């Protein structure tokens, strides 16, 4: 714990923390009180409506989100930090190409952001001595977007992601701390009457401004959902095999986004891969090639499930059908069912 010291100039300390953050490659650093406020009621209503789908952890840890000191005792302040990650401006717009969410084409951001936040915490300790803290990056029940909003890093877009005049291609991370830093002021919202993200969502998952039903969201369906993808959504998924960026691709503010940290540049050609090639990966190849990549956590069976759907949505080429047939007897019923569906789709088109 940090003993509150009347000799410490906390306003000056905050500016030094911001400077240290910039030196470490953070695009923005801000400070908020560890009080999520009305956002907690919105979360409870969203959970009560079942919009979280199978993400049980969202419901299980709701109270930890609501009360930061329960997650890390002594917490009174949240230092919120953002890192730009936009790897390139390419779009996988051919049906036989694999569309992979841009954040997942390179290194796993969890580790990168957490180690960078740890360096920021070390820099703070070098300035004032030991203090109580814990670092997070999408790794615990933390209301990341709300704290970033309060800390002046941006506003909540209608797609519910953090948005700023520098766009939305940003990872967020936090330091929960016992330092009594002065909070920053939130900035004005600049979505106005724009509803581009609501119109662009392939599955209409943004059911109202600022409200996403995860059960319809392609990111949820391809990453979080464990079992079969509901048939009504399969044709709408197109060639997206891991996540979906459509609500960000159409956002006018992303015209001003800068290319991000080279740490996140694509590996293994994931920005231009063909579905057929990825479908051929064995489980060993999947695990080896995606070591240190967030995609690895869905496992090989879900990977094949997702690619089968995408291939079923593509053109009825002979090599696509042959590739699917090669997995028709896969030991996992999840894979077999989606392969059978995809073959049916291709047959109907041929």
TrEMBL record:
It is found in: Cytoplasm. [4Fe-4S] cluster 2 binds at residues 201, 217, 244, 247. GO terms for biological process: tRNA queuosine(34) biosynthetic process. The active site is at 138 (proton donor). GO terms for molecular function: 4 iron, 4 sulfur cluster binding; cobalamin binding; epoxyqueuosine reductase activity; metal ion binding. Pathway: tRNA modification; tRNA-queuosine biosynthesis. Binds 2 [4Fe-4S] clusters per monomer. Keywords: 4Fe-4S, Cobalamin, Cobalt, Cytoplasm, Iron, Iron-sulfur, Metal-binding, Oxidoreductase, Queuosine biosynthesis, tRNA processing. Its cofactor is cob(II)alamin; [4Fe-4S] cluster. It is an enzyme of class 1 (oxidoreductase). InterPro entries: 4Fe4S_Fe-S-bd, 4Fe4S_Fe_S_CS, QueG, QueG_DUF1730. This is Epoxyqueuosine reductase.
């Amino acid at each position: 714990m940090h003993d509150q010291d009347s000799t410490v100039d906390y306003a000056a300390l905050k500016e030094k923390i911001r400077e240290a953050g910039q030196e470490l490659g953070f695009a923005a650093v801000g400070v908020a009180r560890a009080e999520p406020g009305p956002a907690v009621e919105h979360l409870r209503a969203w959970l009560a409506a079942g919009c979280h789908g199978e993400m049980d952890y969202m419901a299980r840890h709701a109270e930890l989100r609501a009360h930061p000191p329960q997650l890390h005792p002594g917490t009174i302040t949240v230092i919120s930090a953002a890192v730009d990650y936009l790897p390139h401006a390419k779009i996988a717009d051919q049906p036989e190409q694999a569309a992979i969410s841009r954040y997942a084409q390179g290194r796993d951001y969890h580790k990168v952001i957490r180690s960078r936040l740890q360096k920021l915490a070390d820099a703070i300790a070098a300035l004032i001595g030991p203090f109580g803290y814990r670092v997070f990056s999408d790794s615990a029940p933390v209301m990341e977007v709300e704290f970033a909003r309060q800390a002046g890093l941006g506003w909540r877009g209608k797609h519910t992601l953090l948005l700023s005049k520098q766009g939305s291609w940003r990872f967020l991370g936090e330091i929960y701390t016992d330092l009594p830093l002065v909070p920053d002021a939130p900035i004005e919202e600049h979505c106005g009457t724009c509803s581009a993200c609501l119109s662009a969502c392939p599955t209409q998952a943004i059911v109202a401004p600022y409200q996403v039903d995860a059960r319809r969201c392609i990111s949820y369906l391809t990453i979080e959902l464990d079992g079969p993808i509901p048939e009504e959504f399969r044709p709408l998924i197109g060639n997206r095999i891991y996540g979906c960026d459509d609500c960000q691709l159409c956002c006018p503010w992303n015209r001003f986004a800068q290319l991000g940290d080279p740490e996140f540049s694509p590996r293994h050609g994931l920005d231009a891969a063909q579905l057929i090639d990825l479908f051929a990966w064995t489980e060993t190849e999947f695990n080896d090639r995606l070591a240190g990549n967030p995609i690895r956590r869905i496992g090989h069976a879900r990977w094949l499930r997702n690619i089968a759907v995408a291939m079923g949505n593509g053109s009825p080429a002979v090599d696509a059908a042959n590739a699917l047939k090669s997995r028709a007897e896969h030991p996992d019923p999840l894979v077999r069912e989606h392969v059978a569906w995809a073959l049916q789709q291709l047959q109907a088109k041929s």
